[in-house]
Write a structure and sequence with these properties.
Helix content is 15%, strand content 28%. By secondary structure, it is an alpha/beta fold. The strands form six sheets. An eleven-stranded parallel beta sheet has the order 8-11-14-17-20-25-28-31-34-37-39, with no helix packed on it.
Length: 345
């Protein structure tokens, strides 16, 4: 795809300094970009690279305008957002072909919209409803009663289990499983009795689910993922969880059952949230944070200690194990000091 700088500037709402008719064919890093490519500068620590850059244009903040850069400049408040929008503009998700592969199996009762693709060895069961321009790659399994909205893309080997509802313009990355049974068991003596999981998974519009992530169906009520949520690879969302609009989770996050997460929350890699909690809108948890109680106010939360030399870590672990006894000794000493002071000795 080739597009003029003027069209790019209009698309971004950016101020253009340079040749508006310059044709851009791709996007690359500052040091790799050619004269027909665009790049971006969002972090000042990379500003030294702009002098060497051969990019035809660079997206940058107005405060970072470098006169010694020979190419065109697109000035906007958030260059990284500009990069994201231009990358999507130059590399749109396209359905290369439409129709149904010969090896795919599609139930006669399924409703499949026009302009989409069902790939090799994919299976679409009874009463499935698939919107227009939906792309289903090879090896996917779409169970009975699933609904998939317009423009959604399923990559290879995705499994969507019965009753799941997926909105429009979603991306489900390879190997994801949506609608599997939640972890529901009742104990009968030394044995476990499985509790049927009767709810669904309901996913809104513009949601992305990463590779090999799993979202469990609800036990009685639905598991709900609101519009705009972004879920990274290897994330587990348990039954009856609700995630608010535009929240995001990095890889290896785990959310236990029946937890409600507000809008605009973020969770760093390996963060864990135990069950039956309420997380307010605008909560941000750094990597490996363990959330064990409800968070009722927006803000930044952390609970992990950083890496340190093993010998020091071992000493700290020993002290932590003896912390309760140390506190008891300290309280005894405090009482003894108070007694000495009171007696005037």
């Amino acid at each position: 795809m080739h597009i003029t700088l003027k069209n790019i500037a209009d698309h971004l709402g950016a101020k253009l300094i340079g040749n508006p008719e310059l044709h851009i064919s791709g996007i690359s890093s500052l040091l790799s970009a050619t004269e027909e490519e665009i790049s971006f500068l969002s972090n000042p620590k990379f500003s030294s690279q702009i002098v060497e850059s051969k990019a035809g244009a660079v997206i940058m903040h107005p405060d970072m305008e470098y006169e010694d850069f020979g190419g065109a400049r697109l000035l906007m408040g958030n260059p990284y957002l500009g990069y994201a929008k231009v990358a999507a503009l130059l590399n749109p998700i396209e359905i290369i072909r439409s129709g149904v592969a010969e090896s795919a199996v599609v139930s006669a009762s399924a409703i499949v919209g026009s302009g989409g693709w069902i790939g090799q060895n994919s299976v679409v069961e009874d009463r499935v409803k698939i919107g227009e321009e939906v792309s289903i790659a090879a090896g996917c399994f779409i169970a009975a009663g699933v609904e998939i909205g317009r423009g959604t893309h399923l990559l290879g080997n995705v499994t969507i289990l019965s009753g799941t509802v997926i909105g429009e313009d979603c991306i489900i990355q390879a190997g994801a499983v949506i609608g599997s049974d939640g972890f529901g068991f009742a104990q009968d003596g030394e044995q476990w009795v499985k509790i049927p999981q009767l709810g669904r998974v309901v996913i809104g519009d513009r949601v992305e689910v990463g590779s090999n992530s799993t979202i469990d169906r609800g036990a009685l009520e639905d598991t709900e993922i609101a519009d705009g949520v972004k879920i990274d690879n290897l994330v587990h969302i348990a039954h009856n969880v609700r995630i608010g609009e535009n929240s995001a989770m990095a890889a290896l996050v785990g959310v236990a059952g029946s937890t409600e997460i507000g809008a605009g929350c973020t969770f760093g890699g390996q963060a864990g949230i135990v069950g039956h909690l309420k997380i307010a809108a605008g909560v941000h948890c750094t990597a490996r944070t363990l959330v064990t109680s409800s968070l009722n106010r927006a803000g930044l939360y952390s609970s992990s200690s950083g890496a340190e030399p093993n010998r020091k870590w071992r000493r700290n672990v020993v002290q932590l194990r003896n912390l309760n006894e140390s506190i008891k000794r300290l309280k005894r000493l405090e009482r003894r000091v108070d007694e000495i002071i009171e007696s005037g000795q």
